[in-house]
Design brief:
CATH architecture: Alpha Horseshoe
Strand order of the largest sheet: 1-2
CATH topology: Serine Threonine Protein Phosphatase 5, Tetratricopeptide repeat
Bound molecules: adenosine-5'-diphosphate, magnesium ion
Helix content: 55-70%
Number of domains: 1
Largest sheet: 2 strands, antiparallel
Order of helices and strands: EHHHHHEHHHH
CATH class: Mainly Alpha
Amino acid sequence: MPVTTATLLNWLRHAAALIHEQREYLTELDAAIGDADHGANLDRGFSAVVEALPVNPEADAGAVLKSAGMRLISTVGGASGPLYGTAFRRAGKLIEGYHALSSHDLLAVLRAFLEAITAMGKAEPGDKTMVDALSPAVAALEQALAAEIALDEALRRAADAAHAGALATVPLVAHRGRASYLGERSAGHQDPGATSAALIVRALADVV
Ligand code: ADP
Ligand code: MG
């Protein structure tokens, strides 16, 4: 099945649904090493994204992601709003005017998503942030596509890598964001942003 604007619309709707389902869990994770607002922040933001989605599945794929990004920036707040918002905007910019995406376009979209977050937040892998889920996801997708694995299976591997990356944040000490104020005491807890990032990648794998 080709990836089209309709796929991206479904991605955003499904991501919103997964985040809504996991809202309490994300908030619990953020309560341990942050300020207990990550679930509420993202649920508010993604509901606002879904409300504003174009109904026309023929819309420009880039415009869909860019407007989702704008919506997240204006509604989420915290660290994650500007980071995810900029990520969707940057990814959307890359596919301006597109109505269908190849596997490699989708890889470029995810890579731009990750790069926007690292450019803005300056986190590196191992800093206990959303980058720890996104970076292995992009690597897994790239590797699978290079091995000519079909996109649906390649994205499943990316989602598994993101989930594993989120779980692997547990022993890490945070070096970015609010959790870094805890220093060594941030170890022993899963990072909320890495967890939500894994849900966003899972949502994409589910809809493709
Ligand atoms: P806040 O920390 O402002 O309350 P959220 O709770 O919504 O914001 O989001 C917290 C998540 O944001 C963290 O778990 C982490 O994954 C991510 N994060 C924070 N700072 C950065 C950064 N500089 N780079 C990448 N991700 C970050
Ligand atoms: Mg928070």
